[in-house]
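Below is how a single chain appears once it has passed through the pipeline. First comes the sequence as given, then the structure the pipeline wrote out for it. We keep one example in the README because the format questions we get most often are answered faster by looking than by reading.
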Amino acid sequence: MHVFSFLFDRHLDKTILVIAVAAGVALLSLGEETQLRQARAVTAALLYPVHRAAEYFASVSSLEEENESLRAMVATLYQERERLLQFRDERERLRALAGLRADPFHTFVPCEVIGRSPSPFIRSVTVDRGAADSVRVGMAVVGYRGLVGRVAQVFPRTAEVLLISNKSISVSCVNRRSRVIGILEWDHANIFRLEYVGKEEDVIVGDTLLTSGHGALFPRGFAVGTVFRIADDRGGIAKRVQVASLANLNALEELFIVAGTRGWNDDRLYDELEKLEARNARRRSG
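Resulting structure:
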């Protein structure tokens, strides 16, 4: 230990010089290919910290750019939020002047799929929310992209969701663009038929269908599917409209149970977002 302390603490420069000379002599005694290989190994070992430092600074630069992009996105979203709040207030004033009832929006209970029916005749999934979470029979269930089904059975901690890909379920839908109404019925896989659409009705490929709210089975306004094929029926008085479900009903994982409604003037969600942003701002400044 004293020898190492003497060499590296008191005579570090001379020790490194001796080691470098010894390494050079050793390399000269080797063959040319071995010299090149050993030289590359030594160079890689010496430059490894430099490469690591370069990668670190590159990652820091990338994170800074991503952070700036996210800040710009947050600013844009806040501006969009203010614009939507103005539209909300204007809409509510117009509905009040027209004597229409206030139009609430929905609250959700998030859940995960924990099971799937093995029966080929009843297509359903089991989710990890039940009566203890205020889930009730008849509640609609949606995914990230669109309507999935409705609650058919409720147990204390779980519930069974009957999917719209069942012959026993029909969904009243409205075309978001033209407001044409039809009845959506399952055909196969994620493919459906929009029935009772007249030949002269304004439906084109690419139209998005929403739940109409008729019949009270499903709340209105939830996306269901997209029209991808249209043909005239053999009788010539109706259209054969084929629709692809927006939700992949064969690969469901996270879902949302439509648990209730609240008024458009309920700003609790916005208040929580503002509190979260204030906490993040204090953390950044601290």
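The first strand starts at residue 105 and ends at 116.

See the next section for the split statistics.
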